[in-house]
Amino acid sequence: MSENYQTIDHDDWNNSPPKSPKSSKIVLGEINGVIPYGDSRNPLGRSATSHRIVFPYRTAANDMKPKVGIFESAAEAGCAHEALISKDLYDLECQPLQVHFLGENRKPRQYTHDIRLTMRSGHRRFLFIRNGASLQRRETWAEIEAIQRATPANEADDLYIVNADDYPRQRRENLFRMHNFVFQPDDEADEIVTWTARRARGLWLVKDLYEPAGILPQRTFRAVYRLVARQVLLTDLNSVLWENSRIELAS
User: Could you give the CA distance from residue 91 to residue 125 in angstroms, rounded to a whole number?
Assistant: First the structure.
């Protein structure tokens, strides 16, 4: 053995990688003109397995002033985009409430609700978002029941279970663009494209609207997204929505 040989920690007796100390959570600084994130829990930690998504959004509850939203998964962000394009939505809260309950073997646990929606009607709903494999397990449903019991009745009217598998990547991308275009309104283009779609013969693809609409293709394309969001036009949101997408008028 060479006299220069040195034993390095995790080299001789432990083959696993050295465990690094847990990184602190990322805290966003102030953004001029934007309401800061202020809900009950900051999920913006570093992770190699899950996506944290941050984007500003507007609701009537905040007089349409942008607010920072932090979402713990891509599916949560997709649900948020879908809710935000609804004219019935009044407010959306991320990580709005933490509850404590007893899990299996009566072990104390805590849970933070993913999203709370408040509609213009006053109805309030928590969203519980999990993937399909988790929702197949008995333990998950036992957890849901415990969470429901631990949640004060005055915090929401109901809890809605969302299967994250219903939000594949392409649907999420389409919802992201819908959210973006809905908050860049162009009422004239929407009216023109709606009128054109109702009178078009052989309407089949998005690009079939370009020439008869008589406006810039960019305006027509964005109007299509807004009209799909309002369900005036229908398409398959699990496929890319572009000029060669199949569309039809809602009946």
Answer: 11
